[in-house]
Design a protein that fits this description.
This protein is mainly beta and 206 residues long. Helices cover 6% and strands 41% of the residues.
């Protein structure tokens, strides 16, 4: 991506953070994602992170990675998803709300923070599907204590009959947390006795 501005445009651009979003399809495996950026001249920046893509055949109970956000929009208000689909993007949508993941997992206590996830339950295609729960813990990274721990059983509203993929959006209660660094842990469970792997996302409350 190439960005070029006149002086007054650059001043306006620098007033806000810039989010670049892209998607690509890759197979299961372990990867190293690298992003290189430059402000012109010989100055170059580089960011790297480990990326793990789990294999999935649709036959076992599972939970996706977690995406944190402070931005969500009604699909009706933004005119639908046609543009995203035409560009080959797969938007994160739950109950008519499009979630826009944030790249900065720092939240203030007044932010409307959320977490987006997907639960994969092949037994939802059975005539008598199981009930689904989420086990949630927010752990203080410094003390190791969990100021928030809950079992979320009210998941029926997220389920579409016969669909084994269940998108979910949960509010992240940052207003209840003291400033500090935290680890969000989520695990799926069903009434058939299955448990998903624990998924983790770290965040900071300012």
């Amino acid at each position: 991506m190439h960005l070029q501005f006149e002086k007054h445009e650059l001043e306006e651009f620098n007033k806000n953070s810039f989010r670049y979003e892209n998607q690509s399809e890759i197979g299961a495996g372990d990867y190293r994602l690298a992003v290189v950026f430059s402000g012109g001249g010989e100055t170059v920046g580089k960011l790297e992170t480990r990326l793990k893509v789990d294999s999935f055949d649709g036959k076992y109970f599972g939970l996706s990675s977690l995406a944190l956000t402070r931005e969500a929009h009604s699909i009706a208000q933004i005119g639908g998803l046609d543009q995203d689909l035409l560009l080959g993007r797969v938007p994160l949508v739950v109950q008519g709300i499009q979630v826009v993941p944030t790249a900065d997992y720092h939240f203030s206590k007044t932010d409307h923070a959320m977490v987006y996830l997907e639960m994969y339950e092949p037994l939802l295609t059975d005539p008598n599907p199981p009930k689904l729960d989420l086990l949630l813990r927010i752990v203080d990274k410094k003390s190791g204590n969990a100021p928030i721990s809950a079992r979320i059983a009210e998941t029926a509203a997220f389920i579409k009959a016969g669909n084994p993929v269940v998108p979910m959006g949960l509010r992240l209660p940052v207003e209840q947390l003291a400033p500090g660094s935290y680890r969000l842990e989520l695990q799926g469970a069903d009434s058939a006795g299955n448990y998903s792997p624990v998924r983790v996302a770290e965040f900071v409350v300012n």
